[in-house]
Amino acid sequence: MITLAVTVTKFGVARNVTFPAIYQEQARTGKRVLPMFLLLSAVLGFVVIGETLTLLNKHGFAAGILGPVMIAVVVRELGPLLTAMLVLARSGTRNVIELGTARALGEVDALEALRIDPIHYLVMPRVIGMGMAVFALTIYFVLGTLASGYLFAFLNNVPLRPDEYVHELTDALTGLDFAILVLKSGLFGVLIAIITCYHALARPLRLEEVSQAATRAVGQSVAACVIADALFLVIYLLV
Amino acid sequence: MSSSAPNPIVPAIEMTGVSLGSCDEPETAVLENIDWTVTPGEYWVIGGMHGAGKTSLLSLAAGLTAPLQGRYRLFGQEMPAKGDQFLAERLRIGLVFDNGQLFHQLTIRENIALPLYYHRNLPEAELEKIVHTILEWAGLTPSAGSLPGAVGRAWLKRAGLARSLVLQPEVLLLDNVLSGLDSRHVHWWLEALDELAAGRTPLGSRPLTVITAAEDLRPWRARAAQFAVLHQGRFRALGHHPQLSELDDPLLKELLAEPLPAA
Q: Interface pTM (ipTM) of the complex?
């Protein structure tokens, strides 16, 4: 809540300091991990389509099922959640360690002595940057998975033309999917950033406590993302 | 920051009946009943053994913590004052930490530039000029591009001073700045603080109120300064240095590292 208030009231303050910080955050959380994400999305595409084909081979092939499966599994569930988990593992942990160490070494006191609001300078850029980064990564991840899924189906001689596959996908997609994908991925990023920053900064920390703070932050971030994911599922069920 | 000269009638620091908690345990009083007035332009040295509450007192004076009891006013403004409307007031005081407490992700130059870029909406060229001047003054130009982890402790302390001065405070608080320094650096600091107190700052000519905490009072003996000691939870102002040797106080003798009579 405090972060939200600071973000709203001070968004325009000291832009020459905070805007580069936001850019830097989304670059190191987002852009720099893109190659790893594309590789993982390729693997996930193979896995999802591979498993689906195995099932279909057992129970008889049903035409037009690959697209809907991909949308349900990848776009609605695994895409955003896996992206969030990977970002948490890579950037969330870095966040707690970086900020927790800064807290323990008195750098946060130094910020306060210089009258620089730590929430404005340290937390706000991370929250905005991570929200943007998780959203962007989710999009790439989903696109990569959908593409590699088709590639796998093609290699397995499934009689499916690219235009038919795209048609299946677009048929299965609804407007709500887009809205929820945006909300969900952005929210995951924001949640991870807030929880990791909270554990690193909320109270005085000694150096030896940084690792415990990281453990707690990761555990709570996973829980928060999964619970948020379940709540979005409720929206699907209701609408 | 106010551009007018400080009004001589308004004390820079005024504490009445202040009790304060320690840094580790904010609720337990480490110092009690402090009455202390600092007039603008004074040069104070506060002596005390390790754990006597020097850092806590400086944190309170800098407005980072609130007193448990009593009131503390900085240039007439009740502290700690939170909120942006008091920003100008709060920027009148600067705190230099024990080890500089630099931001480890930023280079020395970026550390010094950060408060300036954050608080001052000036053209880039002007900001660059200020940072350059300060770096030169502190002798930090050769290490300007290095991260704090790659720079010696003595230089980190200087960078901490430079980072505080960049905002041109009127009161400068320094915590244990001479501890662990070799004589060359000690000499630089004492000269620099004299210059600052006399108003010859790198960025202008306004006398600075300098308040420094120390475990060893010897380096300051010959300097024109007011002294105070912290002992057993009490704050005791002692006056100017010629009077120090007249006082028969074991703690003071220890802080001055004078041989005790029996020895």
A: 0.84
